[in-house]
Design a protein that fits this description.
Largest sheet: 9 strands, mixed
Number of domains: 1
Strand order of the largest sheet: 1-4-3-2-11-6-7-8-10
Strand content: 25-35%
CATH superfamily: L,D-transpeptidase catalytic domain-like
Radius of gyration: 16 Å
CATH class: Mainly Beta
Oligomer: single chain
Structural class: alpha/beta
Number of strands: 11
CATH topology: L,D-transpeptidase catalytic domain-like
Shape: globular
Number of helices: 3
């Protein structure tokens, strides 16, 4: 019984967080023409354009502005969403831990200092994620250590549209 009550509580908190994020919805995402050979449901990230596209089919996609990796910290290839998290904790990834000036502590989910924002979609390989941000001014820039940053309202929108196993194609 306790487990069921706890699960219901977590679900209602997550719903409230998502409702708040959607109420402050980003006006930046839009449906655009997208003529590329990807199946509907595929996420395509074009780092040089600093845009993420969710292919919806019939020659269209939903376009979201994103922040991407700084020079030398970008990557290309195919990954898959392997996890979906609301208010995830954050710890510096291995690439950041190599830098002696990098933070070493774990920052709890929900903290205003947590760079993961309101939600995260982790990618296979274990090092990168598509996530919200506590720095909305960073969207549209080359700012991360390889992760893809989105406005919190946009990552909530994407989170609700995709499932674990969704392919993610990252190109320059």
């Amino acid at each position: 019984m306790r487990k069921i009550v706890y699960q219901l509580l977590i679900a209602s908190v997550a719903s409230a967080i998502f409702a708040l994020a959607l109420a402050t919805s980003s006006r930046a995402r839009e449906i655009v023409a997208f003529d590329a050979p990807f199946d509907p449901g595929t996420i395509v990230i074009r780092t040089q354009q600093r845009q993420l596209f969710l292919v919806i089919g019939e020659g269209y996609a939903i376009r979201y502005p994103v922040g991407v990796g700084r020079a030398g910290q970008q990557w290309t290839g195919v990954a898959y969403i392997d996890g979906k998290y609301v208010e995830p904790d954050w710890a510096p990834p291995p690439v950041m831990r190599r830098n002696p000036a990098a933070p070493v502590q774990v920052i709890a989910g929900g903290s205003p200092k947590n760079p993961m924002g309101i939600a995260a979609l982790t990618l296979t390989g274990g090092e990168y994620a598509i996530h919200g941000t506590n720095q909305p001014d960073s969207i549209g820039r080359f700012v991360s250590s390889g992760c893809i940053r989105m406005q919190n309202a946009d990552v909530v929108d994407l989170y609700q549209r995709v499932a674990v196993g969704t392919p993610v194609v990252v190109t320059h």
